Amino acid sequence: MQITIPWPDPKLSPNARCHYLKVATLKKQYRSKCCEIAYRHGGKMSGALHLTITFHPPDKRKRDIDNMLASIKSALDGIADAIEVDDYNWVITIKRAEPVSGGAINIGISEHELNG
Questions:
Q1: In order along the chain (116 residues), what is the average pLDDT of each group of 10 residues?
Q2: How many CB atoms lie within 10 A of CB 46?
Q3: Which CATH architecture has domain 2-111?
Q4: Which residues contact 110 (CB under 8 A, 6 or more apart)?
Q5: Burial code of 77-112, b = ≥16 C-beta within 10 A, e = fewer?
Q6: What residue segments make up the domains of the chain, in order of their start?
Q7: What is the dihedral angle through the alpha carbons of 6, 9, 13, 17, rounded to the nearest 10 degrees?
Q8: What is the predicted pLDDT for the residue at 17?
């Protein structure tokens, strides 16, 4: 499965300093939106999964890859909700790519065999 989710609101960054209630609302909205996107692209999967996450930032500013990943935690939870798989067994590959207007995140989801 291949999906594209929108770039997260900057207030979802772990470096942002926003009121926790505002952040909670943004997380809930982003999770719901990403759940809906994943559901439309196929829905339920099973077993261990490999996610390849490719970040296409909205501009050329430098961003830490770990902060980008933290910014999309609620999106990943929404995807887990849609495909009905516990994200405990996910293996994740993270990539940074060229900027695109408005930013985007491409997520490839495939089956993965767990070793040991």
A1: 95 87 93 95 82 96 93 96 89 95 95 68
A2: 9
A3: 2-Layer Sandwich (3.30)
A4: 1, 49, 50, 52
A5: bbbbbbbebeeeebeeeeeeeeeeeeebbbbebeee
A6: 2-111
A7: 180
A8: 85
> Whole-model pTM above 0.85?
yes
CB 58 within 8 A of CB 97: no
Report the pLDDT value the prediction gives residue 116, as an integer from 0 to 100: 52
104, 6 in Cβ contact below 8 A? yes
Size of the chain in residues:
116
- Exposed e or buried b per residue across 13-25, where buried means at least 16 C-beta atoms within 10 angstroms of its C-beta: beeeeeeeeebee
